[in-house]
């Protein structure tokens, strides 16, 4: 019997390893690192091969300014990915630089690894507005105290602005209490938003935040380049890190994520509502119209009644899809036509 066990134990051991590597519980990683990469195509090829070998899905952007990724897989596969990425001499990353949440490979439709001009698309040349000009990084504890002090002076003439630099559909389902959340649809609109609202930031202390910190790196650099603010700070590690330490803190609602989950939560607050009936609701789904990529908040009752589109125009188009022909535009609906590209905030 002992000989038999010895004979088959290597096979059993390998089977267990395969199961742990490609099946079982998993997670989603979120990370970035700004650093000089002379040949991003080499890093891109290495990352693609690494992800494929570990059966990871997700998105990885590589540029001369660094790397930005979010990938999902089993616990063993994602741990191996962290170790491999950290081992590269260019990145000099700590394990804590990788933010994690429950999930897996099923959270993404596929794997996309590519070389880009920017690792986060702000639409500005990284050589002109560099991450090296970013604002002061505040640890979650420091940021929490700043927000606490801001809220304590809510009724006074305050010189501090709490700025959410994410997109409107992200801040719609979760945000910090009493923040300024611009109604912009893409981060590439953020520079124009700053330009058109400079007086809003003049002589102010600005506390910035985003999902994981990466947008604040370039966003705060752009804001600082305008030389109108007293001081510019950013939440280190973003909302993700803040919620790990303060799940019942000043951030209320869900945290939007760019994968098939759409959101993760740390508290039970629902700050958004159904687009149709106005009942509390914060679970996004894609507009049901074939050629629209807008996200819609439609509660279970309204969805059962067939109200699954992002707007009446799309609802009508959806009902006539069988007769649809000719060219279509993904964002041709009332949602985009009725919203100003760059909002003017008071």
TrEMBL record:
Sequence segments annotated as region (Disordered) = 317-346
Extent of the signal sequence:
none
> What are the Rhodanese domain coordinates in residue numbering?
156-251
Concerning PROSITE patterns, the annotation shows: RHODANESE_3
List the biased-composition ranges (Basic and acidic residues). 328-346
Q: Which InterPro entries match?
A: Rhodanese-like_dom (IPR001763), Rhodanese-like_dom_sf (IPR036873), Rhodanese_C (IPR022111), TrhO (IPR020936), TRHO_N (IPR040503)
Q: Which branch of life, at top level?
A: Eukaryota
Q: Can you say what this protein is called?
A: Thiosulfate sulfurtransferase/rhodanese-like domain-containing protein 2
Q: Lineage of the native species?
A: Eukaryota, Metazoa, Chordata, Craniata, Vertebrata
Gene name of this polypeptide: tstd2
């Amino acid at each position: 019997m002992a000989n038999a066990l010895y004979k088959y134990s290597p096979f059993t051991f390998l089977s267990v390893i395969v199961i742990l590597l490609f099946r079982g519980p998993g997670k989603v990683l979120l990370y970035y690192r700004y650093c000089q990469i002379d040949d991003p195509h080499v890093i891109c090829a290495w990352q693609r091969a690494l992800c494929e070998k570990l059966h990871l899905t997700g998105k990885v952007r590589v540029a001369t300014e660094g790397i930005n990724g979010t990938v999902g897989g089993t616990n063993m596969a994602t741990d191996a990915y962290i170790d491999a990425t950290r081992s590269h001499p260019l990145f000099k990353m700590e394990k804590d630089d990788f933010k994690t949440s429950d999930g897996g490979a099923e959270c993404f439709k596929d794997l996309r690894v590519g070389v880009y001009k920017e690792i986060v698309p702000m639409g500005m040349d990284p050589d002109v507005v560099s991450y090296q000009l970013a604002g002061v990084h505040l640890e979650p504890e420091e940021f929490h105290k700043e927000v606490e002090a801001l809220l304590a002076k809510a009724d006074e003439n305050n010189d501090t602005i709490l700025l959410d630099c994410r997109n409107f559909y992200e801040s719609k389902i979760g945000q910090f209490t009493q923040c300024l959340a611009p109604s912009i649809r893409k981060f590439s609109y953020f520079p124009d938003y700053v330009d058109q609202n400079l007086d809003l930031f003049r002589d102010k202390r600005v506390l910035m935040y985003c999902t994981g910190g990466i947008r604040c790196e370039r966003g705060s650099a752009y804001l600082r380049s305008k030389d109108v603010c007293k001081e510019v700070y950013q939440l280190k590690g973003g909302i993700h890190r803040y919620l790990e330490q303060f799940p019942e803190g000043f951030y209320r609602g869900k945290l939007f994520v760019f994968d098939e989950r759409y959101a993760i939560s740390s508290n039970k607050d629902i700050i958004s509502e159904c687009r149709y009936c106005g009942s509390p609701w914060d679970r996004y789904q894609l507009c049901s119209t074939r050629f629209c990529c807008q996200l819609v908040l439609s509660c279970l009752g309204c969805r059962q009644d067939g109200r699954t589109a992002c707007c009446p125009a799309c609802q009508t188009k959806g009902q006539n899809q069988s007769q649809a022909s000719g060219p279509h535009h993904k964002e041709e609906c009332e949602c985009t036509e009725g919203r100003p590209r760059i909002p003017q905030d008071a």
